[in-house]
């Protein structure tokens, strides 16, 4: 029989105690995207990048909102290399075209090539990386070696070859296909690494245990949870694709000379650099600001989606 005569002392509970482990039921549970948004929206550089990107996209979609001057039909040789004047704040090109109008309208072509090339490269990279990372085995080996081959080829050099061979088809889609078709390998590597991490999660095993097919599990559970790094890579790839279009057009193997783009404007202005440098400087500034805005946005999104980076700040 246990000794029940022993006295047990319990510390008295004082008034005013607080429940340190209380849970606020009204608050929404935290997740990666909510934490990332809470972090990134407090950073001024994020809003600066977003505003610049929105202005560039608005110029590409609706250029007449910024200028009513036709970029080509109103060219006058009498105004060749002329300076700023009423209605023409940036002056004129060698052909007597309005520099401001051409810079505004050039955003449509440059951004279109960048978006289309990024969409092509990201789609190929997502498919190749997801299949290689999720299924593994011989399929991973084959797809990884294909990716290594494309990764070892500079995509600008490959695009030069493609556009030189198919010079009669020099348009936005062909150029975007030439860029995106060779720039997907880095995206595939990032996606593969993230899929390898996600496929070990408990919810993936639970999905398979409930009878869902491997392909269905990959589409419904693995890829949605591995999409965060792809978002960062896509933003940075967009900046690279815009630069690639300008580089190829400057070299004369990109878009046709009759197509308005920042690369073509820079290429055409190099002959009159000494007498009219503004014709080259303004498209270059537009290109530089656009690329920097997308790069800054990608860097900020990457830091916001990385919990370790948030903890270090």
TrEMBL record:
One matching Pfam family: BPD_transp_1
Tree of life domain: Bacteria
PROSITE patterns named among the record's database cross-references: ABC_TM1
CDD domains xref list: TM_PBP2 (cd06261)
Keyword vocabulary terms for this entry: Cell membrane, Membrane, Transmembrane, Transmembrane helix, Transport
Subcellular location(s) of the protein: Cell membrane
Keyword Cell membrane among record annotations: yes
Transmembrane segments: 44-62, 113-137, 149-166, 172-191, 222-244, 280-301
Keyword Membrane: yes
Topology versus the membrane: Multi-pass membrane protein
Residue ranges occupied by any ABC transmembrane type-1 domain in the UniProt entry: 107-293
UniProt cross-references to Gene3D superfamilies, sorted A to Z: MetI-like
PANTHER family in the cross-refs: ABC TRANSPORTER PERMEASE PROTEIN, OLIGOPEPTIDE TRANSPORT SYSTEM PERMEASE PROTEIN APPC
Family: Belongs to the binding-protein-dependent transport system permease family.
UniProt name for this protein: ABC transporter permease
Organism name: Microbacterium capsulatum
């Amino acid at each position: 029989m246990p000794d029940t005569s022993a006295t047990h002392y319990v510390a008295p509970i004082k008034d005013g105690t607080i429940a340190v482990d209380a849970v606020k039921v009204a608050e929404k549970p935290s997740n990666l995207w909510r934490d990332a948004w809470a972090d990134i929206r407090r950073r001024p550089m994020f809003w600066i990048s977003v505003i610049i990107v929105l202005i560039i996209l608005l110029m590409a979609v609706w250029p007449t909102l910024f200028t009513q001057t036709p970029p080509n039909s109103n060219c006058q040789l009498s105004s060749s290399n002329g300076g700023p004047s009423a209605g023409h704040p940036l002056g004129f090109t060698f052909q007597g075209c309005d520099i401001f109008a051409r810079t505004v309208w050039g955003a449509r072509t440059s951004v279109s090539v960048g978006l289309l090339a990024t969409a092509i490269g990201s789609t190929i990279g997502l498919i190749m990386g997801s299949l290689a990372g999720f299924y593994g085995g011989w399929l991973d080996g084959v797809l990884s070696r294909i990716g290594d081959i494309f990764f070892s080829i500079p995509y600008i050099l490959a695009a030069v070859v493609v556009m030189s061979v198919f010079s009669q088809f020099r348009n936005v889609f062909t150029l975007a296909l030439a860029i995106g078709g060779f720039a997907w390998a880095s995206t595939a590597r990032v996606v593969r690494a993230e899929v390898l991490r996600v496929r070990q999660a408990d919810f993936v095993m639970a999905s398979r245990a409930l009878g869902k097919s491997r392909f269905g599990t990959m589409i419904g559970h693995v890829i949605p949870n591995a999409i965060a790094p792809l978002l960062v890579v896509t933003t940075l790839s967009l900046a690279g694709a815009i630069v690639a279009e300008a580089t190829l057009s400057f070299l004369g193997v990109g878009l046709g000379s009759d197509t308005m783009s920042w690369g073509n404007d820079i290429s055409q202005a190099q002959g009159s650099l000494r007498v009219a440098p503004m014709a080259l400087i303004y498209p270059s500034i537009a290109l530089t600001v656009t690329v920097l805005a997308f790069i800054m946005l990608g860097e900020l999104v990457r830091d916001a989606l990385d919990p370790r980076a948030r903890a270090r700040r």
